[in-house]
Amino acid sequence: MSYTHRYRLALDRILELVVVLNDDMTRSLASYGLTVSRTHLLWELRQRGPTTQKALADALQVSPRTVTGLIDGLVSSGFVTREPHPSDRRATHVSFTEWGVSIMVVLERSHAEFAQALFASMPDTDFDCFVVGLDQLLGRLREHVAASAEDA
Amino acid sequence: MSYTHRYRLALDRILELVVVLNDDMTRSLASYGLTVSRTHLLWELRQRGPTTQKALADALQVSPRTVTGLIDGLVSSGFVTREPHPSDRRATHVSFTEWGVSIMVVLERSHAEFAQALFASMPDTDFDCFVVGLDQLLGRLREHVAASAEDA
DNA sequence: TATTGTTATACTCTATAACTATA
DNA sequence: TATAGTTATAGAGTATAACAATA
Fold first, then answer.
1. Residue numbers of the domain that contains A145
2. Are residues A79 and A149 in the same domain?
3. Which strand C bases fall within 7 angstroms of a protein CB?
4. A66 sits within 7 Å of strand C by its CB
5. Does the C-beta of A68 come within 7 A of strand D?
6. Each residue of B75-107: pLDDT tens digit?
7. How far is CA A39 from CA A32, A33, A46, B10, B141, in A?
8. Are A4 and B116 in contact (CB under 8 A)?
C-alpha cells in the first residue's frame, strides 16, 4: 500500500477521533450542566482569574455578543457571577462562584484520569513516538492554516 | 517529568488539534457553501448512493428532524434533490445533483492533498509509529465511551 | 399499529448592526 | 471619539412531541 494512501487513512482516523472525542466531551460535560463552549470559557477564566467579558471574547476568538450568551448561561447555572468592574464602570467583572471553583477542580481531576485511561496502557516507546508524530502534525497543521489565511 | 504529567500534556495537545482542525474544516468548507454537518451527510450519501432520510438519520446518529433541516439546506444550495421513493410513498429519495457530485470530487481531491500536506514531510518511521499510537488511542477511547455508556 | 417525514417549539452557539453608558 | 456590553435580528445544528400520510 502506498504512503499516499496510508496518509489518507491516517487523516480519516484523526477525523474519526475528532468526532468521537467531541461526542464524549459533550456527553460528559452535560452531566455537570455544562457545554463545550461554556467549559472553554471557564477554562480561560481559570487561567486568568476574574476578568472582563471583552478579555474573554478576545481569548476565545469569539464576538462580545457570544460571550454575553455564554456568561448568561453560566450565571443561570451558578458557575460564575457578574459584578461591577472596580475601576471601569462600562465593564463587567466575571468571577467564579464557590460552586464553580469546586466543579473546575472535579473537571481537572477527571481530565487527568481521562489522559491516564487513554495512554497508561501504551508501551512507553509507543507513547514517546506518538507524541513526536503528534507534535509534527500540529506544526504542519498550523502551517497549513497560516497558508490558507494568506490566500483569503 | 512523570509520565502521568506527560499523558495530560499529550491529551491537551490532542484537544488543541481538535479545535484547530475543526476551525480549519469549517473555514475551508464554507468556501464551497458547506458546513461540517452538511458535509458529513454528503459523505454518507456518497458511500451509500441514493437513500432515504431515515437511513441518513441512523447513519449520522441524529434525529429525523435534524436530517430534514440538513437536507433543506443542501437542496437550497443545489447539492442534492428530494424525489419520491420508488416503492414507499412515505419515504423520500435523496440523490446528488450533478453539481453536488462535482463538488464531492473536488472535496475528495482536496482531502487527499491535505493528508499529503500533513504527513509527507514526516520521516516514514515517525509516521508508522504515529499511526500505531493513533490506533491504540482510538481503541482506548472507544472502550472509554462504551464504559461511560454503561453507567448511563 | 408501526414507520417516514413534517410542523411546532425550544435551546445552544455563532454573527452583525444599532444602541447605551462610560472613558 | 472609542470602548464595553446590551438588545435586536438572523442562521445553523440539535432535540422532543404531535401529527399526517402511508405501510
1. 122-152
2. no
3. 3-9, 12-17, 21-23
4. yes
5. yes
6. 999 999 999 999 999 999 999 999 999 999 999
7. 10, 10, 10, 19, 21
8. yes
Question: In the structure, how far is the CA atom of residue A72 from the C1' atom of nucleotide C17, in angstroms?
Answer: 21
CATH code at A58?
Answer: 1.10.10.10
Centre a 10 Å sphere on the Cβ of residue A107 and count the other Cβ atoms it contains: 18
Q: Is the CB of A13 less than 8 angstroms away from the CB of B141?
A: no
If asked whether residues A89 and A151 sit together in one domain, one would say no
Cα B75 to Cα B78: distance, rounded to the nearest angstrom: 5
Considering Cα of B80, then B81, then B82, then B88, what sign does the dihedral take? negative
Residues B73 and B88 in one domain: yes
- What stretches of B78-147 adopt beta strand conformation (E)? 80-84, 92-96
Q: Record the pTM.
A: 0.94
Report how far residue A118's alpha carbon sits from residue B30's, in angstroms, rounded to the nearest whole number. 33
Same domain? B116 vs B41:
yes
Q: List, for residues A105-136, the tens digit of each pLDDT value.
A: 999 999 999 999 999 999 999 999 999 999 99
Cell of B78: 443545489
Q: What sections of chain A are H helices per DSSP?
A: 3-30, 36-48, 53-60, 64-76, 98-119, 124-151
Q: Å from B146 to nearest chain A CA?
A: 10
A49 three-class SS:
coil
Task: Give which of A17, A110, A124 to mutate to test B binding, by max B Cβ within 10 Å.
Answer: A17
